Amino acid sequence: MCLRVHARLVRGCPCVELRDELSGAVRYRWSSDLHAADIHGHDVQDLIRMLLLASAQTEARQAGQESG
């Protein structure tokens, strides 16, 4: 599975999704009720951590399915 990052503003608030590149299905979604102008650096760090964790979990699941 190959994931693609999609980011957009929803009513001025950030929404980031990891989507399966082939099917377009949303695998993970992160959104905030904070207006984009009010987001601080630590929130961006949290987002990066979430994306890395989601990617690692997807790879682990895929490896488990291939071996099983």
Question: Which keywords apply here?
Answer:
1 helix, 3 strands, three-stranded antiparallel sheet, 68 residues, 40% helix, alpha+beta
Structural overview:
The chain has one helix at 41-67; strands at residues 3-10, 13-20, 26-31. It is α+β, with helices and mostly antiparallel strands and 68 residues long. The protein has one domain. It is elongated, with a radius of gyration of 14 Å.
What's the shape? elongated
Number of domains: 1
The count of DSSP E runs of length 2 or more, i.e. the number of strands, is 3
Largest sheet: 3 strands, antiparallel
What is the H/E string? EEEH
Overview in brief:
The protein has one helix and three strands.
Question: Which helices and strands, and how do they pair?
Answer:
Blueprint (H helix, E strand, L loop, with lengths): L2 E8 L2 E8 L5 E6 L9 H27 L1
